[in-house]
Amino acid sequence: MVNRQTWLSVFGRSLNLPCFFPSISSIKTNLAPIEYLRLLVDVNYPQFLVSAYDIFNTSVEQRRQFNTILQNAAEREQLILLDSGNYESYWRDDKSWNKTSFHSVLQREQCHLAFCFDRQDEYCNIERIVDQVETSVVSTQSEALLASVVPIVHGEPDILPEASLLLTQRLHPILLAIPERELGNGIISRAATLLRIRKTMDQTGKYYPLHLLGTGNPLSILIYSMCGADTFDGLEWCQTAVDYSTGLLYHFHQREFFGKQTQFDSTPKLPYELATLAHNLLFYRQWMDKIQDSISNGTITDMAMRFMDKSFCSTLLDYLSRVT
């Protein structure tokens, strides 16, 4: 049995686990990336993710502003995770985005963690997957002066546990990232795959924290935290409005459904968009605190039962109990 890690140390900064990285992206969002970045720094959110693609594809003046704000965030001891930008290039069908462009941002901008430049080839051979990720991590780390590189492993659900084990044995990463969408179909199947990955990785005798890419739904975060995930990133914080009493997400412009749950909901001079974003960010901080406390106290199952349908929870827990 490997003891669960409750914190992550990155260049002198300590993150309590599990934790959530609010993502900043130009895709499927309302404001420009730099506006979200300003807000996250202004409210001093402990950690966040920013895309190298969005930084690269800005004007000279905006690039200067990005640099200044990121430096300010680092001085305030906010932890910066730099994404490779492949999400944005995919949705924009930008085939010009490449590893060289990513590395040019990595070399110039302040960050503490950086994802490797990942590919999503449909390899079925585990050794090829692991070799490819290792090569990418080594290449990216050689360009990262002040950041630890986080490997991303892609694959079918049945091969992810072994691939993750091999990567931890080869690279001993500070964090290992897996896209949530590749864990399977349906929340129960994904939770089971994640639990298999955690159990397989624990065979090393050392705890390696797991990051889930694209996971920003509060209830999903709760379930995956139960199954051994440690860090998450997602855009839900800036795309939706969250109900504090249930953890459920609604359309961004439906925050008034919940009444006044925070001080931001009662600030008439604060524009609606900023009030909703502040409302959401405070929720995620409190939500992750609750999950951390429930793990520490051994009551995370009770927390799940409070916020989710009890019949669903019973089915989920029964299914997970049979995962080997």
For the record, the CATH architecture stands as Alpha-Beta Barrel
**How many individual β-strands?**
12
The CATH superfamily appears as Queuine tRNA-ribosyltransferase-like
Mean pLDDT: 95
Q: Give the total of domains.
A: 1
Task: Give unreliable regions as ranges.
Answer: none
Note the gap between the termini.
14 Å
Order of strands across the biggest sheet? 7-6-5-4-3-10-9-8
Order of helices and strands, N to C?
EEEHEHHEHHEHEHEHEHEHEEHHH
Please estimate the helix content. 40-55%
Query: What is the gyration radius calculated from CA atoms?
Result: 19 Å
Q: Which class in CATH terms? A: Alpha Beta
Q: In this structure, how is the largest beta sheet organized?
A: 8 strands, parallel
Strand content: 5-15%
- Enter the CATH topology name: TIM Barrel
Shape: globular
Number of helical stretches of at least 4 residues: 13
Features of this protein?
TIM Barrel; single chain; alpha/beta; 12 strands; eight-stranded parallel beta sheet; two-stranded antiparallel ribbon; 324 residues
What does this structure look like?
- This protein has 324 residues and is of the alpha/beta class.
- The chain has one domain: Queuine tRNA-ribosyltransferase-like (TIM Barrel).
- Helix content is 47%, strand content 15%.
- The strands form three sheets. The chain has an eight-stranded parallel sheet.
What is the compact description of this entry?
The protein has 324 residues and is α/β, with parallel strands linked by helices. It has helices at 33-42, 52-56, 60-75, 86-91, 99-108, 126-143, 160-171, 187-201, 218-226, 236-239, 272-297, 300-307, 310-321; strands at residues 7-10, 13-16, 19-24, 47-51, 79-83, 113-115, 148-150, 176-179, 210-213, 231-234, 240-242, 249-251.
